[in-house]
Design brief:
seven-stranded mixed β-sheet, six-stranded antiparallel β-barrel, alpha+beta
């Protein structure tokens, strides 16, 4: 009996310690007061009341957006500091026209070789060619009568302006670099009434023109250009339809030669001369009209020597004389003249050759 009491006492102590150790464990099926479960449906599992929780909705995260490219960086143009503004570019591969320096040209009358001898077709061709070259802004057209009058004051007279001596003299004295002349080879004209009941006239014309380019420094023929107008490309009606058709045909023919003519003019080297010297001041035979600008630097050479072929007796050109020095354009005056000051060198003389420093 005594042993039975001791066993009951020991088991009671064991139960007390066991229950105290499990006091902090949550009871199955019961929710602790401090925990808040999400709302959901109530279900029973093996007779116990259980809360089936609902997972909170996870916010959808948008896919990572593609980073927008950075704005383009505007590259500021390099600032170029120059003493003079940039010159116009004409598209020529040669440096002289890139600089904007223009050649001096004389245009003579064209010979009329057509059957329309009473018409002043030769003069019309010369005038239309002058207009087209002037519109190109690549040459300086010199009035041939003005040059002829200047040479007459020097006691010189020429029966023909296409004379070799006249051309070379115009180059040496006034810086003429090219002479243009030629002939009208053919003009075909067809006219008729627009209808039997009408007095209005319709005319068609075609033309063939020959243009010769002469290097004024040597008097040599550089190139002959042939231009033709398209057939039936010059229909004109109404009053003066005949003369209008011929003029349009001549324009077409000259346009056919213009590109080649300007290209060959590029091959001629630009130069001018010293007209007069007063102390340190040099007066040049070229200025604003020729494309010079204040600040331009130019080289001064003594006149070279003309080389004549011993067999053909044709001029091969001029050698380059001794380099005398460098001058700077200080002022532009008149229509086409300039004042220059010495930068380097000395012993300058009137008639010395002045060239661009761009090679």
């Amino acid at each position: 009996m005594k042993n039975r009491i001791v066993e009951v006492f020991v088991i009671s102590l064991f139960l007390i310690f066991f229950l105290n150790g499990c006091a902090n464990l949550p009871l199955i099926g019961k929710k602790r007061s401090e925990e808040k479960l999400p709302e959901g449906k109530t279900v029973r599992v093996e007779g116990l009341e259980t809360i089936k929780g609902v997972n909170p909705q996870i916010a959808e995260t948008p896919p990572p957006s593609k980073p927008s490219p950075p704005p383009p960086i505007r590259k500021e143009p390099d600032s170029k500091i120059a003493s003079i503004p940039s010159r116009p570019f004409y598209g020529s591969p040669l440096p002289y026209f890139q600089m904007g320096l223009k050649k001096k040209v004389i245009i003579l009358d064209f010979e009329n070789k057509t059957t329309y001898k009473e018409e002043k077709i030769g003069e019309t061709v010369a005038k239309r060619l002058s207009d087209k070259l002037e519109a190109s802004q690549r040459v300086v057209l010199i009035d041939r009568n003005a040059i002829l009058e200047m040479l007459r004051r020097e006691g010189l007279s020429f029966e023909s302006l296409s004379n070799l001596e006249f051309i070379k003299r115009a180059h040496r004295s006034y810086g003429i670099q090219a002479v243009l002349y030629g002939s009208v080879m053919d003009v075909s004209l067809l006219s008729s009434k627009t209808s039997e009941a009408s007095e209005e006239e319709v005319s068609f014309a075609t033309a063939k023109v020959e243009v010769r380019l002469v290097d004024a420094s040597t008097g040599n023929l550089l190139k002959t250009f042939i231009g033709r107008s398209p057939i039936f490309g010059t229909k004109e009606t109404g009053e003066y339809s005949r003369s209008k058709a011929v003029t349009k045909a001549i324009d077409f023919a000259l346009e056919d030669t213009l590109d080649g003519l300007l290209r060959y003019l590029d091959y001629l080297e630009w130069s001018t001369t010293i007209a007069k010297i007063e102390g340190e001041t040099l007066f040049l035979n070229a200025g604003k009209l020729s494309g010079l600008r204040v600040g331009d630097h130019l080289e001064v050479y003594e006149p070279g020597k003309e080389i004549i072929h011993p067999t053909t007796h044709l001029s091969l050109g001029w050698t380059t004389g001794r380099l005398k020095g460098l001058v700077r354009v200080q002022e532009l005056f008149g229509v086409d003249a300039a004042i220059a000051k010495r930068v380097e060198g000395n012993d300058f003389s009137p008639g010395d050759i002045v060239k661009s420093t761009f090679k």
